[in-house]
Amino acid sequence: MLSSLTTAAARPGPRRGRRRRTVRTAVAGLAALGTAAALAACGGGDTGGGGETGDEATGGTSDVTVGLVTKTDSNPFFVRMREAAQEAAEENGARLVALAGEFDGDNEGQVAAIENLVTQGVDGILITPNSSTGILQAIADARAQGVLVIALDTATDPEDAVDATFATDNREAGRLQGAWVKGALGDTAPVLAMLDGTPGGTVDTFRHEGFLEGMGLSENSPEIAGMENTNGDQTKAQTAMENLYSRNTEINSVYTINEPAARGAYQALSDAGAADKVVIGSIDGSCDGVQAVKDGEIGATVMQFPDKMAADGVAAVVQYAQDGTKPSGFTDTGSQLITDKPVEGLESQDTAWGLENCWG
């Protein structure tokens, strides 16, 4: 089922044909928009249609309508992405319709959301795919209708299934996490637990592979004590960590797909009286996640910039609606290692910087 929000700011218009319309409001500063959004200060929070439909539509003065489909509408990462997209749409005189899956992994909900948006006549769709392959036909159908489709945060497989991708280089983010964990262990041999995300997602695969590269390990290395999928959920991660640690109390390092998984791992290890014996790394850069680094619960995290992904995506859709220009290829929206325990040879920022630049 589709998850969505509704406001009275604007209502979706009728289905239109292939878009070759002009923007009523002049579009200024598109190139600078993404950079400005990436500098947005943080608040609080942490890191995440078919049947009954609804939408969040904002703006309403322009002929340009931007659709946004996130994995969920509750994960603070996607909440912030939606907020940034709304801000960018308002700045560009466009209208935003935001939909989401019910949970991380809800591919059917996202397929229905794309169909919903195409029916509403959007000019472009920004999507963070739950499944990098399961969403392909819906994307192809949308593009055949003249809708620009841009992947945010999570690439499709193949990558050229969409017009363009604006995302973190997740393999590099994973590598930074792994290199930091390796450096933090020093001369101690790793006994590693891996708390993965959702099978089938490129984000999950790239971060996992990048982490192993940073650690100097392979998929079958004996240093890996066990792997569990967590869907990036704190409760599932806590249970997974409890299971892994009960089977091997020599575990001294943990890879986590995101900060909720890291906090779940920390809670399990804390309950077992082992939190101070295990190095935990993560990825996200939420304000709660950075605070957890400052508090010593997570050793380091790699910050992403969802504001920039959303702002660049909205600007690209507006540009497309204005003159038909399409973006292409992969745009790296950046990543930054955050820790108060720097490792030699790895560029990092401390948590003071992190709390000034975090999201959520």
Structure annotation, total helices: 11
Q: Give helix and strand order, one letter per element, not per position.
A: EHEEHEHEHEEHEHEHEHEHEHEEH
Provide the helix percentage.
Answer: 25-40%
Instruction: Tell me, briefly, the overall form.
Output: elongated
Please state the average pLDDT score: 86
Write down the domain tally.
2
Kindly, what is the distance between the CA atoms of the first and last residues, rounded to a whole number of angstroms?
A: 25 Å
Please give the radius of gyration in angstroms. 20 Å
List how many beta strands DSSP finds: 14
Structure description:
With 360 residues, the protein is α/β, with parallel strands linked by helices. It folds into two domains: 3-168 and 306-327, Rossmann fold (3-Layer(aba) Sandwich); 170-303 and 337-357, Response regulator (Rossmann fold), CATH 3.40.50.2300. It is built from eleven helices and 14 strands. The protein has helices at 30-38, 76-91, 107-120, 136-144, 170-185, 202-215, 234-247, 259-271, 287-294, 306-323, 351-357; strands spanning 3-4, 56-58, 65-70, 95-100, 124-127, 148-152, 164-167, 192-196, 224-229, 253-256, 279-284, 300-303, 329-332, 336-339. Strands 1, 2, 3, 4, 5, 6, 7 and 13 form an eight-stranded mixed beta sheet that branches. Helix 8 (259-271) links the parallel strand 10 and strand 11. Helix 1 (30-38) runs antiparallel to helix 10 (306-323) and helix 2 (76-91) runs parallel beside helix 10. Residues 4-54 have low confidence and may be disordered.
